[in-house]
Design brief:
By secondary structure, this protein is of the alpha/beta class. Helices cover 39% and strands 16% of the residues. The chain contains eleven helices and twelve strands. A six-stranded parallel β-sheet has the order 2-1-3-4-5-11, sandwiched between helices. The longest helix has 16 residues. The N terminus is likely disordered.
């Protein structure tokens, strides 16, 4: 019930877009942060929201792959919100294959959908996707994988909805700094860590990797990177990487940073198999606040995670889509809408659990 109330609050607050703002400045750039807000609030986007066409319309939703745990939550939220507003929705699985997703986008255009919501398989495909939807004059919302401002400026019926991953990385670092020994379990004056990264092409993976460590160094801590490997957001890869690193580095590893919760849960399995105890002789943090991760934080098996608000982002994505359908256009520098992350700790995890 608490989780339901928290998500409902996030939905309500996510409707409060700041009028006429550009993209939000990188959060916590100096390694310190203000207390996280109790719910996410989008920043940027259209300065006014015209009414959507009466009777809804047809919407094509492209997801990079259906078996991603976070994107499953996201697409289900999108489906529910859109259908609740009377739209006819078709959602397709890109199977993490950009060529296949390109064909799906072209099929939607041929079918004459009124709007597209696209979660690109590859960030590097942004130019091609934007050129395609622009040529077809289809209002489009990109989600989860952010193009550059310069790329988006090519089309004024395009907006991006997501989160500023610098904020999530900073919050991961703060979770470590909030521990009694600030991550320096063995007391040697430095934090020795491994980093299990998502897709290194993805800007979220890049920023989470960079800013989690930056939060530590900005706080005056010395760090030692023992390993950094790509886990492609995958639980099994997270488990394998962590198992191999534990075999190689053993007790040297004090912190395991994971760019998402699925990889963190995989890493936890290896940590437990190695006889290590999270929050006693090793720390483990993720991002997304998946139900499975919330359970592990509650049980003391994860140090913390960071809420990646799928419901708030889905709500904002639909709102921006309706702005476009109502005739809104977006100027350069005003095409990104960000929803805040929230730190999840053992002290507040109950607020996010059912």
């Amino acid at each position: 019930m608490k989780k339901t109330l928290a998500l409902a609050l996030a939905v309500v607050m996510s409707l409060g877009l700041l009028a006429g703002c550009g993209p939000k400045e990188p959060a916590n750039n100096g390694g310190t942060s203000n207390p996280p807000s109790s719910a996410s609030q989008p920043q940027g986007g259209a300065s006014s929201i015209p009414d959507a066409p009466a009777g809804g319309g047809t919407v094509g939703v492209c997801i990079y792959k259906f078996d991603d745990a976070f994107m499953t939550t996201y697409r289900n939220a999108l489906q529910e919100i859109l259908e609740g507003k009377g739209y006819k929705v078709t959602t397709v699985d890109g199977n993490n294959d950009q060529s296949k997703q390109n064909e799906q986008i072209n099929t939607f255009i041929t079918q004459g959908v009124d709007a597209l919501i696209i979660n690109p398989c590859m960030t590097s495909a942004a130019d091609s996707i934007i050129a395609t939807v622009k040529a077809a004059n289809i209002p489009t919302v990109l989600i989860n994988r952010e193009p550059t401002a310069e790329q988006m400026a090519a089309y004024d019926k395009l907006v991006y909805v997501g989160c500023d991953a610098r904020q999530s990385g900073t919050m991961q670092g703060e979770l470590i700094l909030d521990t009694p020994n600030k991550g320096d379990i063995n007391g040697d004056g430095k934090i020795s860590y491994i980093m299990i990264q998502g897709d290194p092409e993805n800007i979220d993976a890049q920023y989470r990797t960079e800013f989690s460590v930056k939060a530590l160094t900005d706080a005056g801590m010395e760090v030692e990177e023992l390993d950094l490997q790509r886990g492609d957001w995958d639980r099994e890869k997270g488990q394998t990487i962590c198992a191999n690193d534990l075999a190689q580095f053993g007790d040297q590893i004090e912190v395991v940073f994971c760019n998402n919760d699925d990889m963190a849960i995989g890493a936890l399995q290896s940590i437990q198999s190695a006889g290590r105890k999270v929050n006693e002789d090793i720390y483990l943090v993720g991002v997304d606040a998946l139900d499975a991760a919330l359970n592990e934080v509650s049980n003391g098996n994860m140090t913390g995670t960071v809420l990646n608000d799928a419901v708030g982002q889905a709500t904002a994505a639909v709102e921006q889509m309706e702005a476009l359908l109502g005739g809104a256009t977006f100027s350069s520098g005003n095409q990104s809408v960000y929803v805040d992350y929230v730190k999840v700790t053992p002290d507040n995890v109950g607020d996010f659990m059912g």
